[in-house]
Design brief:
single chain, mainly alpha, 7 helices
């Protein structure tokens, strides 16, 4: 009956994973009743196999869409992803699927690619800064002679703005 309800839901993979996790939890709460324990074990295994078979079939049809299924947030279950459910309930058969590994690889390498892109952008910016600094240094070296000339000219102006020493007339009688 649970599988009939499961097939009516849109997010069957996630719901199957949740059902597998719940039956696992029920197994730990009823260890004294062997018949119940075996029943829960079988149900848990069936739900795990169903979820794994679904994602494997999706992966064979389209790797890209299957990977998106694992990363899609499911509002019905509180905006969690299939990956989060599988990891939290430690559903190894699902975690060991090719699709799950593909998603992990894509996530890992896209993050490292993003880091590489950021590093390259920083390198480009630092190279631009070095180029700007070199340009400014070259301009300042060209300006040194002009600056020296201006400083000398200003010194001359300062000296010319001073009053010349008074001219003393000598008496012509002594001549």
């Amino acid at each position: 009956m649970a599988f009939v309800l499961l097939l009516q839901l849109k997010s069957r993979i996630a719901v199957a994973l949740v059902a597998a996790g719940i039956t696992r939890q029920l197994m730990s709460t009823t260890p004294e009743y062997l018949d119940q324990l075996h029943k829960f074990q079988k149900q848990s295994k069936d739900y795990e196999q169903f979820a794994t078979a679904c994602i494997d079939a999706c992966y064979q049809r389209s790797e890209r869409y299957a990977c998106q299924l694992l990363l899609r947030e499911i509002p019905f279950l509180g905006n969690i992803t299939c990956m989060q459910v599988a990891i939290s309930f430690r559903i190894k058969s699902f975690i060991n699927s090719r699709c799950f590994n593909q998603v992990l690889n894509r996530q890992w390498f896209s993050e490292t690619d993003e880091l590489k892109a950021e590093i390259e952008a920083l390198k480009r910016k630092s190279n631009q800064m070095y180029t700007t600094i070199d340009t400014m240094n070259a301009q300042s070296k060209r300006m040194i002679p002009a600056t020296n000339w201006m400083m000398k000219a200003m010194d001359r102006v300062k000296m010319s703005s001073q009053r010349p020493p008074p001219f003393v007339f000598s008496s012509s009688s002594e001549a």
